[in-house]
Structures are given as structure tokens and as C-alpha cells.
Design brief:
mainly beta, Immunoglobulin-like, 1 helix, 12 strands
Length: 176
């Protein structure tokens, strides 16, 4: 079975909570609107006590922060305005909540509702040199402890082929 995947997103940093409510998207650079509306997603930071949205329908968004994924205690509820690209930024002066792992953020534009559970991801960063095409290249390596990050566990038992060029394809095939 071959599947085409959209553009992969790579985030760098320390103690950043990276949570994408959209794991796969077909399309080119940034999917904006499907038949039912945008493929919305959320990113949050425990260290900065902020979250932002992308690809929601522009206009008023309803947002809430809960103490758990089960929507136990409501810690904050409010409305924010998404710009023409569906982006809205919500930080501590707006929500006044110390964001912690295990908390749940939910955002809705009336058509699409997305939620995320905050999970701490600690990244180690290393400077190293690799041999690439018979030439040494200095690179930065980002390493995370624990289970595979978003998407990697889904690839267990599959072969991934990348055409690394502008507009190149990505195919995923089950290993026999």
C-alpha cells in the first residue's frame, strides 16, 4: 500500500511541547481549506505558557484549557480572533494558566474542533560531523528520549522513500 504524505514539520528547541492535532495531510505547502473546512492544528509551550493555532477558519475561536484530557476542571475559557490564515496566539497574560504536562487545550471555530494533551518533550542538541557524498559536513542533531515522536511509531514495519527535491514525493509501503 502506497500513501502520499504532505510536508513534514520540524520543530527545534528545548522543553517545547509539540503537539500536532493533524498528523497527515495531503497537499503541497500548507493545507488551508478542505471540503469541510481547514485542517486545523495547535502548538503549545510549557516553558512559555502559550499556545497558537493554525489553519482554523478566520474569525472568532472558542478556546478552553482543562486540567486533564477528560475535561475535568475548566481552568480557562475564552475567545480569540484568528487572522486570515487561521492563526491566533494565546499567552499567559490572556489565559493566566501555568501550562503543565497532562493539561488539555481545546479550540473550535464552529466547524472544526481540535484538542491536544500537553506532553513534555526534552530535546538534546549536538554538533557533529557526518560524511555525506564523500565530504564532511557539520550538522546539528536533535535527539529526544523515550518513544518515537509524532508519526514515527506509525512508520514501524514500513519502508519510506523520499524524493528530496522541490515537489518531490514521499511514499510509504508496508514491509513484507
Amino acid at each position: 500500500m502506497n500513501k502520499k504524505w504532505g510536508k513534514a514539520l520540524l520543530w527545534r528547541g528545548f522543553s517545547i511541547l509539540i503537539v500536532l492535532s493533524m498528523l497527515m495531510a495531503s497537499g503541497m505547502v500548507s493545507p488551508r481549506v478542505s471540503a469541510q473546512g481547514p485542517l486545523a492544528w495547535i502548538v503549545a509551550s510549557e516553558a512559555g505558557d502559550w499556545f497558537w493555532t493554525a489553519d482554523f477558519i478566520p474569525g472568532e475561536l472558542n478556546a478552553a484549557i482543562f486540567d486533564t484530557e477528560a475535561k475535568g476542571t475548566e481552568l480557562w475559557v475564552g475567545t480569540v480572533t484568528a487572522d486570515e490564515s487561521g492563526f491566533a496566539f494565546v499567552d499567559f497574560p490572556i489565559h493566566a494558566v501555568d501550562l503543565l504536562p497532562g493539561m488539555f487545550i481545546e479550540v473550535s471555530d464552529g466547524t472544526s474542533t481540535k484538542g491536544l494533551v500537553l506532553q513534555a518533550i526534552s530535546m538534546d542538541v549536538f554538533d557533529t560531523t557526518v560524511l555525506w557524498d564523500n565530504q564532511e559536513r557539520d550538522i546539528v542533531v536533535h535527539a529526544a528520549e523515550g518513544a518515537p515522536l509524532v508519526g514515527m511509531a506509525l512508520l514501524s514495519g514500513y519502508r519510506v522513500t523520499l524524493d528530496v527535491e522541490d515537489g518531490g514525493s514521499v511514499s510509504i509501503e508496508a514491509l513484507s
